[in-house]
Amino acid sequence: MMLEGGCLCGAVRYRMDASDGIVDFCHCRVCQRAAGAPVVAWVQVAPERFALTAGTLASFSSSLECDRYFCGRCGSQISMTDHDGRSVGVTVASLDQPDRLAPTSHGWTSAQLAWLAIEDDLPRYPRTPPHDEP
C-alpha cells in the first residue's frame, strides 16, 4: 500500500509503503507536546519503506529513545525514529489520505488527558505497546 504525504506548507513530501505498517494512537506527554494535540496517530514502517521525495526535514532529539523530524519552514511534525533505527513512525494526519489507515491500539494511556474520550474497542496499554518494545 503506497501512500504519500507532506507538511502543511508543501515544502516536504514523502512516500511510503505502509502494507505491513503498525498503526496506533500515542497518548504520551512527549507526543502531546510535540504535536500540540491530545493524541497522535502514528504508522510505523521499516526505514527502507519510507523516503522523502521533496524537501528536507529538521530534527530534534525529543527523548532518550527517539528523534522527531519536522518541516523547518512550517513546523509540521512528519516522523520519528528510534535511535536504533528499527522503524520510522509517520504521523497519520500528514498523509494525503489519512483515512486509508486506522489505528489498532492505544499506547501510553497512563498519560491520556482526562477529558479526552475515544470510544472504541481497541487494546489499551498504560505504557509502551508490545509492538514498540525493543
In short:
With 134 residues, the chain is mainly beta. It is 5% helix and 37% strand.
Fold topology:
Elements: E1 2-6, E2 13-17, E3 22-26, H1 29-35, E4 40-45, E5 50-54, E6 57-61, E7 66-71, E8 77-82, E9 88-91, E10 106-107
Parallel strand pairs: 3-10
Antiparallel strand pairs: 1-2, 2-5, 3-4, 4-9, 6-7, 7-8, 8-9
What sequence of helices (H) and strands (E) makes up the elements?
A: EEEHEEEEEEE
CATH architecture: Beta Complex
**Largest β sheet strand count, sense and barrel closure:** 7 strands, mixed
Strand order of the largest sheet: 6-7-8-9-4-3-10
Structure in words:
The protein is mainly beta. Helix content is 5%, strand content 37%. The chain contains one helix and ten strands; from the N terminus they run βββαβββββββ. It has one helix at residues 29-35; strands spanning 2-6, 13-17, 22-26, 40-45, 50-54, 57-61, 66-71, 77-82, 88-91, 106-107. The strands form two sheets. Strands 6-7-8-9-4-3-10 form a seven-stranded mixed sheet. A three-stranded antiparallel sheet has the order 1-2-5, with no helix packed on it. Strand 1 and strand 2 form a beta hairpin. The radius of gyration is 14 Å and the shape is globular.
